[in-house]
Specification:
Elements lengths: L11 E6 L27 H8 L9 E5 L3 H11 L5 E5 L5 H13 L6 E6 L3 E2 L2 H16 L3 E6 L10 E7 L7 E7 L4 H10 L2 E11 H11 L1 H12 L2 E3 L2 E3 L2 H4 L7 H6 L5 E6 L3 E2 L4 H7 L8 E3 L2 E4 L5 E4 L4 E4 L4 E5 L4 E5 L6 H10 L10 E4 L2 E8 L3 E8 L7 E3 L3 E9 L2 E5 L2 E5 L4 E4 L5 E4 L6 E9 L8 E4 L6
Parallel strand pairs: 1-2, 1-4, 2-3, 3-11, 6-12, 14-16, 15-17, 16-18
Antiparallel strand pairs: 4-9, 5-13, 6-9, 7-8, 7-9, 8-12, 10-11, 18-19, 20-21, 21-22, 22-29, 23-30, 24-27, 24-29, 25-26, 25-28
């Protein structure tokens, strides 16, 4: 797929991976959001999105993500890609318009007329062939100086999506239209009228545009966004494999979506209607809708048993979950939370998450398993003055050189071999061996072996919070 820009450059996929997907709680949380989970295939949604842009027609992608997820995202990309992506780090969330602007500034450095294909990292598309055919039209339209979005053909009167009303056909590209209006998420009767009309399409959140056109429209319609993102970009730093936007400058950026900043104001917008088997996988009922079902119309994942249940979505991450005599329910079981709701109330899960946040519950945003650049740890037992964790360190992984003011630690190796630094000494600790780290000692754990290192950590002390870590040296440039 080539396009007719003056430089004849390739298309640049841009993947936005900043959302948290709170309607898919308790699996999707801020610490590990839905795009990093394998929800619709064996790969994560981020990986599936990136692979859509893996062809000779496209350059290596640009990923825009929250800095807290940078190592998780880099590792997932390494699993499926041979090319090295550009990973832009947002120091804090500011919605899609600033993220897209930062990506456009990055690409425009080398080719202002390059065509960018902007995709959210958390949508599902079943028909890849149809997608590539639509992309051909979208690139042609973008080369005309248009900001193009894909309008998904509605299959039902969905009230959870925004709609795009198409206008007159666009001269020069068959199947492309001027956008007459954007419509907010409608009431049920309005959504039904949209579907019957035939001129309304779901807003997919995907855009195709030239970098210079996007930046010009930002200057015209959202100058404050462009000004502050440009300042953050100019003050950027390189951190390992990441491009880090300046935090102070980015904090001044207005929090606004690309729809409100540009799409609803510009006079160069266009829409290409398409039927791609698209879903934003924004809620559990949407995930049930696109998943393979059994003879009882159930979607069952994990250690699940049903009896006289129909039309249900049941997912269990670690324990036997049994559902009997229920229809059209969602049951999701994780290590620290259980969700039970009717499918037609799946949109209300976000309200539960908001309540958990107001009540200060960690389960709103953090999983028991916490990922780090060296591996992960997960809580097993927690009490006032002690807690027990399982720690897994990847081969070659190394924790920071650190100390704690309020706790001591006892490590028992149950798999692999550990290299432990304790003050001035180093110890090789093997399977079924242990080591004690008194309060205040300087210590480090690393895995010198070829297989994952697994150990059980017992912490004891007056305060066991994760913020009682004084990092003296870190291989991953964490503060």
């Amino acid at each position: 797929m080539a396009h007719d820009s003056k430089k004849g450059g390739k298309i640049v996929p841009v993947v936005l991976s900043g959302g948290t997907g709170s309607r898919l709680w308790p699996m999707s949380r801020a610490s590990f959001p839905k795009q990093l989970w394998s929800l619709v295939s064996e790969r994560s949604m981020l990986q599936e999105t990136v692979l859509r842009g893996c062809s000779a027609a496209f350059t290596a992608p640009v990923i825009v993500c929250n800095e807290e997820h940078r190592f998780l995202i880099a590792e997932q990309l390494r699993e499926v890609m041979t090319e090295k992506p550009s990973i832009l780090l947002e120091p804090l969330g500011r919605n899609s318009a600033p993220a897209i602007t930062a990506a456009a500034l990055l690409v425009a450095q080398s080719d202002p007329q390059a065509v960018l294909w902007m995709m959210p990292a958390d949508a599902d598309i079943k028909n890849q062939t149809a997608l590539m055919q639509v992309m051909e039209k979208a690139v042609q339209t973008a080369d005309l100086g248009r900001i193009v979005t894909f309008g998904m053909t509605p299959t039902r009167p969905e009230t959870g999506y925004g709609y795009i009303e198409k206008g007159a056909p666009l001269t020069g590209v068959e199947g492309a239209y001027v956008i007459r209006a954007f419509r907010e998420k409608p009431a049920p009767d309005v959504a039904q009228a949209f579907v019957e009309d035939g001129g309304y399409f779901w807003n997919s959140g995907m855009f195709v545009f030239r970098a210079d056109v996007l930046l010009a429209e930002m200057a015209k319609h959202a100058p404050a966004v462009l000004e502050h993102v440009q300042a953050a970009f100019e003050k950027r730093t390189t951190d390992l494999d990441f491009i880090r936007l300046d935090k102070d400058a980015f904090a001044q950026v207005p929090d606004i979506s690309i729809d409100y900043a540009i799409a609803e104001k510009t006079d160069v917008s266009a829409v290409i209607p398409a039927d791609l088997g698209w879903s934003d996988v924004g809620s559990w009922d949407a995930l049930w809708d696109i998943s393979v079902k059994d003879a009882q119309n159930n979607v069952l994942i994990g250690d699940v048993l049903t009896e006289d249940a129909h039309g249900c979505y049941v997912r269990s991450e670690n324990i036997l979950t049994a559902v009997s005599g229920l229809d059209d329910v969602v049951v999701v079981v994780t290590s620290d939370a259980v969700l039970v709701t009717h499918k037609n109330r799946a949109q209300d899960v976000k309200t539960l998450v908001d309540r958990l946040k107001r009540e200060g519950r960690a389960e709103a945003s953090v999983h028991q398993r916490c990922y780090r650049p060296w591996g992960f740890y997960e809580g097993l037992i927690c009490n006032d003055r002690f807690q027990v964790k399982r720690i897994v360190v990847n081969p070659g992984g190394k924790l920071s050189l650190q100390k704690h003011f309020h706790r001591s630690e006892h490590w028992v190796v149950v798999g692999g071999v550990a290299m432990v630094t304790r003050d001035e000494d180093e110890f090789l600790v093997r399977e079924n061996e242990s080591i004690y780290l008194p309060q205040g000692c300087v210590h480090r754990l690393e895995n010198p072996g070829k297989i994952p290192l697994t150990l059980i950590e017992v912490q004891s002390g007056a305060y066991l919070g994760e913020d009682d870590i004084i990092r003296l040296e870190d291989s991953y440039n964490r503060n």
